[in-house]
Amino acid sequence: MKKVMIALLLLGATAMTREATAQISVNINIGSQPAWGPTGYDYAGYYYLPDINCYYDIGRGQFIYPNGSRWVYARNLPGRYRNVNLYNTYKVVINRPSPFRNNRDDINRYARYKGVHSQPVIRDSRDSRYYASKGHPMHQQWEKDHGRVDAGPRGDRGNRGNHYGRR
Q1: How many angstroms separate the CA atoms of 31 and 130, rounded?
Q2: Who is most buried in 18, 61, 69, 104, counting CB within 10 A?
């Protein structure tokens, strides 16, 4: 009977260790989120921008916007969005693959955020975890403190050549 109890305890401990390991391996991508992204999220797969009905794929560093009946991936927004200020446009975090497939639902669900310009962004955050974001004013200091080499003059990879998002 003792052997059975010991076996069950070991099995339970192993299961708890696996569960704890799974909980520890949470995805965090603060450093790859653009400086114009919203604060409050350790992980974000996509942003939905209700003001212009488009998405931003954080992993790819590309916008996804409608062009006729198709969705186009591009590093920059097209000219029709030249007056969009990404720092004050509301962003909804979406963590499902190919979010544009549910675009009609997103349009309805997030319509209340159109015209909202009060969302805090990573660039303006004083929370030190956001210093890992390349567009944050404290990023270079964060790199020095963490022994990292600066990736170069491009800055925030979400804004490569995209003057639409700059103030």
Answers
A1: 7
A2: 61
The helix/strand/coil state of 166 is coil
Neighbouring-strand partners of residue 47: 56, 93
Measured in whole angstroms, how far is the alpha carbon of residue 1 from the centre of its chain?
Answer: 53
Cβ–Cβ < 8 Å for 136, 127: no
Give yes or no for a contact between 30 and 44, defined as CB atoms under 8 angstroms apart.
Answer: no
Does 108 or 24 have the greater pLDDT score? 108
Q: Which residue carries 């209340």 as its tokens?
A: 112
> Which tens digit of pLDDT belongs to each residue from 70-127?
999 999 999 999 999 999 999 999 999 999 999 999 999 999 999 999 999 988 888 8
- In order, the DSSP letters of 79-147 are GGGTT--TTTS--EEE-SSSGGGGHHHHHHHTGGGTT-----BGGG---GGGGGSTTSTTHHHHHHHTT
